[in-house]
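Your task
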Amino acid sequence: MKDIKISDNIEVSSKLDEYILKGLEEGIEIKNYKNSNKNNSKKPYLKIAMLVGAISCATITGAYAIDKIIDYFKYNKDSIYKYEEEKMQEHAQVINKSVKHDGVEFRLDTVVADDSYIVLNYTVTSDKEISKLEGGEELINNVYMANPFVRLLRGDKEVFDGGNIENEATFVSDYQLKGMIRHRVGRYDIKDETILTADTWEVFGIEKDWSIDFKLDKKSTKNNSYKYDINKSQTLAGTMEHKGKIVETKNKFTVDNVTISPLGNLITITEEVDAPESDNLPYIGDRFVLLDEENNHLDVLSYSLQVPDKPNKPITSSYEFLLNNKDIKSMTLVPIEYENAMESKLLNLTPINKLPIEFEISKYGKVKIDNFEIGENQIRYSYKKEGIIPYLSDLIFCDENGEILFFENSFSKESVDRENNKVDVIINLETKKDKEIAKKIKNVTVYDDNGLKLMYDKKIDISLDK
């Protein structure tokens, strides 16, 4: 345990006992200790005793000022959740429980929870170098393959919202991986102090019982978390081709609830399609926009899109949306459709050295790129949406002659600044060829969205009275 620093005015958390009893491996730093003895070599239990004694004599002003309870961000500076670090640190619940099989340990470090999300932070440590495990060469070269999918169970039932899994991981060393997974729980009613289980069927290729039970603690987020039961529906009529004929269809979608909370805002929607049996059923999914009471667009992050696979089978998903004003009183869901969707075209080429770059995506909104950098191994840029832009295609890169450039084996990831409605994009250049292609980029463009149509006649008004 590292040296503990105590200031004259100590801020004390309701979780103090938990921090002390858990014996955090990374240690605890308390800010601004005056006259601290940096060469203190006393045993850890004496430091804890001194801490408790000092607290009884100090001026108490609030919550304990503790740094780096979640150390994941220390090792992954480009985390797609980097803008969420402060909130996660503020509300983290220390678990520090582990399971070990065949020289590999899976440890649940912390849990952060409110009515929208339950976030699990975990560490996997191997006694051997990961590359020397069975199949380890492939694991150490692919963090996505090495990262276990950590399920969340309530009793014997999985808490799962479908769609894309919100997780990521990073290698800390040749022996260790740290990961994070955000479970959307807006559709569920999970009470404080519920016993949950973090579980995965395989860790570093080892199939064993990796389950870890913990008691959920939502007290830290309780006062700023609001869940509204809505239960309002609309039905969209349409047509589809079936067995050589055009037949009518009906899509019923219901807003079940809305959750506004520190870790994210979710709208939970159930869709049911009345149509003939088909492998390609029509669906609404995330084809809607949200507007606040002042008609401002609330951007929806489409992580949880699910497609109906059977007629008249309800499918429920929660969609995260961005919100600057937590005191919002109402909002409106407006379905969207596309007219002449195949006629989308590229907008005018714009030089990357003429920032900021603006593209008018449709009559409803535009996008503004305020930063663009090409480095040795990465391309980085940032953008904001203005107005209504449900979707935004990837930037199209062109050379000085306007020829479109295509990468061979590179991928991008986005970090969303939920407080400022800004998105950072990083494209990792994986090959020598891609690095050479990146040097040729002189212009950018994007596809328009002029086929977009808002179906105001099918809107759903949502009241959010506290």
Summary: The radius of gyration is 25 Å. The chain is about 10% helix and 40% strand. The helical segments are 16-22, 44-57, 72-75, 85-91, 136-140, 143-146, 432-439.
